Predict the structure.
Amino acid sequence: METEQTIGGIVGILIIWHVIYLIQLKSFNRWLSVAFFGWWTLVLTWILFALFHKFVNPVREVLFLLACDALNVTCIWYLGRQSFRAFAVQFVAEREKGKLSRMIQKKIRRGR
């Protein structure tokens, strides 16, 4: 019981860390998301083929899994586009430049 809570807490912290850095458009987290969406798409497709005969309402379940696959592929495509990568690199560079500028201003104010 305690081990499950510990693992759940660690997973929760990792998810929060990932979301924060993904919002900041960090390169590692973008590619981690692409890898996760790719893995998730493969798992859903495997479920679709492996468990099709066990579905209670095959049409509904197949449509749901295909919709999830389509959303995952769309996310992979969007995060992997050249223009989005260029935007993310520029965004991170400008953000870092802003941080450096604020730090320099703070140092100047302290020096007075």
Notes: Residues 2-80 form one domain. The helical segments are 2-23, 27-50, 58-80, 82-111. The chain has a mean pLDDT of 89.
